[in-house]
Design a protein that fits this description.
single chain, 123 residues, mainly alpha, 68% helix, globular
Length: 123
């Protein structure tokens, strides 16, 4: 199973709990705070500013879109990390780390909380 296929399937509102349009809005809204948090953590670990250009170094196994998506699917369905990892063809620890990184970003998103209240299949 490819990451592209997994993303296409999991973006369905039955899995993630929000419409694809709302998912796009969430991605736009949360991408910058996530990048800022990643850069801050890297700066803290290094103890200084970066020496190389942004984008140098190892790449993430899951891009931000997929990180947000697996977090939403896990929170909505309770699908185990191991099952999500199998869908994406990556390690379970990668999914666990992704969910741990994204979950705190979702707390202050009021539009997501109102979307959960009117999500299909609830009630």
């Amino acid at each position: 199973m490819t990451k592209k296929w997994a993303r296409a399937a999991l973006t369905h509102p039955a899995f993630c709990g929000v419409s694809r349009a709302h998912l796009g809005d969430l991605i736009e809204e949360l991408a910058d705070p996530w990048l800022a948090r990643c850069e801050s953590e890297l700066r803290e670990r290094r103890g200084a500013e970066r020496r190389r250009e942004a984008g140098a170094g190892p790449k993430h196994d899951l891009v931000f879109t997929d990180r947000l998506l697996v977090t939403l699917v896990h929170l909505r369905t309770g699908l185990p990390h191991a099952a999500l990892a199998e869908l994406y063809g990556i390690a379970r620890s990668t999914i666990s780390r992704a969910i741990g990184e994204i979950r705190p970003l979702l707390v202050p998103v009021p539009s997501l909380q109102s979307a959960e209240a009117r999500a299909p299949g609830r009630g």
